Predict the 3D structure of the following.
Amino acid sequence: MLEMGSRSHVFLLIFVSQILAILGQTNSNDATALFALKSSWNNLPPNWEGSDPCGSSWAGLICDNSRVTSIKLSGMGLEGSQFGDLSSLTALQILDLSNNVGLKGTLPPSIGNLKNLTTLILVGCSFFGPIPESIGSLQQLVFISLTSNSFTGPIPPSIGNLSKLSWLDLSDNKINGTIPISQGSALGLDSLVNTRHLHLSKNQLSGLIQPQLFNASMKLIHVILDHNQLTGEIPESLGSLQNLEILRLDWNSLNGSVPSELSNVTSLSELYLSNNNLNGSIPDLASMNLLTYVGMSNNSFNASDVPDWFTKLPLLKTIYMENTTLQGQIPVDLFSRPNLETIGLANNKLNGTLDIGTRYGNNLTLDLRNNSIKDFTQKTGYNMNISLAGNPICDGTGATAKYCAIQISNDSFSSPLQCPAMSCNSDKILSPTCKCLYPYTGTLHFFSLSFSNLDNSSYFTTLAGSMMSAFLSNGLPVDSVSLSDPTVDVYSYLQIEAQIFPSTQDSFNHTSIPSIGYLLNRNPFQLQYFGPFFFTSESYCCFADGNKKSSSHTGIIIGVSVGCAVLVLLTFCAGLYAFRQRKMAKRAGHSSNPFESWDRDTSGAVPQLKGARWFSFDEIRKCTNNFSESNCIGSGGYGKVFKGTLTTGEVVAIKRAQHGSMQGAFEFKTEIELLSRIHHKNVVSLVGFCYEQGEQMLVYEYISKGTLRESLSVKPKFQLEWTRRLKIALDAARGLAYLHELADPPIIHRDVKSNNILLDDHLTAKVADFGLSKLLRDEDKGHVTTQVKGTLGYLDPEYYMSQQLTEKSDVYSFGVVLLELITARAPIERGKHIVRLVAETIYDSKDNSKLYQLIDPRIGPGSKLEGVDRLFTLGMRCVNESGAERPSMGEAVKEIESILELASLSKYTEGDLTSSSYEDTTQLRLDDFYNDKAFDYSGKFPSGGMNTTY
Ligand SMILES: *[C@@H]1O[C@H](CO)[C@@H](O)[C@H](O)[C@H]1NC(C)=O
Ligand SMILES: *[C@@H]1O[C@H](CO)[C@@H](O)[C@H](O)[C@H]1NC(C)=O
Ligand SMILES: *[C@@H]1O[C@H](CO)[C@@H](O)[C@H](O)[C@H]1NC(C)=O
Ligand SMILES: *[C@@H]1O[C@H](CO)[C@@H](O)[C@H](O)[C@H]1NC(C)=O
Ligand SMILES: *[C@@H]1O[C@H](CO)[C@@H](O)[C@H](O)[C@H]1NC(C)=O
């Protein structure tokens, strides 16, 4: 009965929500699916309330055209088992549920409905059962990571259908059977011609690695098959993989000899063959000049002297060849290899006298336990980590020597403590930047690594740096990253504990945590030294925006009804409020001082100010050092801008109008009221104002990194690489789209330029300085503002001619900013306008080489500039002579988002390159890019844009 009751509640709920959804921005099928999810899963984000998921921006969702296209709920602590509810979100492109250990159940065949899915990430959940065959019908899939679940059964051969798949990771499950290959009409993994990552480690795969699995048309760079039960020989066909960088076949039951064709793979950087039954002679690796890591321990190779290539491979850092019947003397040359960190040769038959010469590195670890070495030339005064225990030299009296110790010390690195005198109360943790915060804590699991010296902090510093830069370039509010306790586990996976500290508050909210989780498991990193990885975490402890208790269905019903009632009430209140406002405004209009009725001490609470504070003239004077020149950070026709520090420590920018540019008191008040309602992360927000002693001042948040113009100038303070520039373009576009489309009343900026786009600490761009310009309302009233406002070079020619101001004038100026971003040129340089320059260049040349010459060289190297053509195109569309032909800011946002997605994708591909080959290959790709003649520019631009004259 109870069960029945709660079911009918769910139906009622779904019914109610459908009705509501019709009124909202969410497609009703999608809304139904989400409500079903909501009623069956626990711990969904607290803002999953109301009837319109897209319209009310439920955390973790992204919608496009009222369809849900992305769900990212990593690390939320979700509990539930009904995956099927997701299967009707047919527009879904990205699904990331990683690190919700409470999510269990099987993947239903209906997952095959998600035809537009590109990215499926379920790392670290508790899904079990077979992977449905229908996954092979998701033709758009680029990225699958099902790592660390309990999937069983075989690998569905249908995965071979996924021609776009770049990353396939099924590691750490209980998958059994053989690795499927094509047979007759049935496809297998050998048809994955675009796959770069094949990670099937830590499963129960058995049978042969069929020779057909690899062929020369494949793009594989990482083949990771360790810790299975694979048998038979290593296929010769591996030799045809010309891009392979990491090969892990260790911990299987492979036998036979290592095929000589393997030496064909000269791109290989890390080779793991340990713990098999390989026999025959030790393979000759001398041609593999990029090898950094070789592991071949515990095989049954023929007895052999130390092979030549030990001393020949230039980049070799790590050799493990324990228990492989190596014999004879170790050549002294080996120890002078500059890059070596670890030589693990325990349990062999090495004999004679050990001579390490004088040119060995201090960080070298040499493990020679259980060999037959009788003597050691440098018995005293050597400075490396060495163990000879179990050799004749350590018999009898020798046993007490330092080099006979059994333990090889391996002190572990952890991020140095920068602020030793500090400690945190409660359960907060001290960040590397000395703040007490609630970090998001998890573990990075690396499938491979090129190095072995875990004491060398520079590797981890580099890693933390790469992570930070990925977080920041994706706009995530991360203050710092602390890494500690690197350990190589029994699977030879490097694990590192990571603490990720929040920047905007003490703790992360329900939007940031899944974005961090997504970024880490989607692997968009350019990592030196480290191979591919996955990230696991517990659910986050301390969400800034609260944690919802799992509510009963009745609770939701009541919630909805109360919600409706509140809605009605609010609508009523809003009406009342507007009425009151109008009355107040009327009164204010008659009064000589509209501010006199404001209670100064509590003015922050005056409702129409939405948080903007009132400042006394004295307060401002003090905090700007009496408006001293040294505090002045800008000036213009309206007056000057000063930097000031409030008594609270908050740093602000104060805009002080000079006498000529002051407005009437009522206009000033109206303006403050409007500005105080503008709240968007890409728009500089108003902190407060001062209206006293004949002064009009606006107090804004201070944006630390200055203007975009400065950072594009000849000597920028920091480098803006390609994706960063795209991110800045996106931020600015979003800010403007907000002003145009969401602000009420809409605001036309009228002075969009690179000098009015500011960059904060995290290089998030914010649109500034729509402040003292008049608002759209004045225009409506027919104020004869014949004076065209704006800055030369950014001025919309149509507006200039017609004096009809529309949003499209901002779009024009924004187009100029886009061209500036790509070329770093000022809008007018040597008398030539940038729009004209680009237009002429496009028309002048058949190929694009001339156009590409306009690109700011500092945008690379290391960038592929994926999408630069599209950004050029967008810029030119924005500066179309006819306003009607220009895109809206909302359209511009969408296009830049899509370019950024493309560029980040290619950046991650680039990140796959390992340190040794990274530089060269990148260079090559850039050259390819510039030589790409196939790409035709003309015809992509509407002709109207070309004829613009100045
Ligand atoms: C899937 O993507 C295609 C191409 O972008 C689009 O035309 C189609 O509408 C999408 N399907 C759904 C269900 O959204
Ligand atoms: C795979 O595992 C399942 C149990 O999960 C078992 O029934 C099946 O026989 C196994 N298949 C193979 C090929 O080992
Ligand atoms: C080795 O590489 C060459 C090209 O570098 C290729 O022609 C040849 O087929 C490869 N050998 C094998 C066994 O794949
Ligand atoms: C040495 O290697 C063989 C396989 O070649 C393995 O069976 C044996 O356990 C290994 N011995 C040690 C001490 O690891
Ligand atoms: C070391 O071992 C090799 C091969 O087992 C043998 O020929 C040689 O005589 C040994 N050398 C010494 C000094 O014992």
About this structure: The chain has a mean pLDDT of 80. The two ends are 78 Å apart (CA to CA).
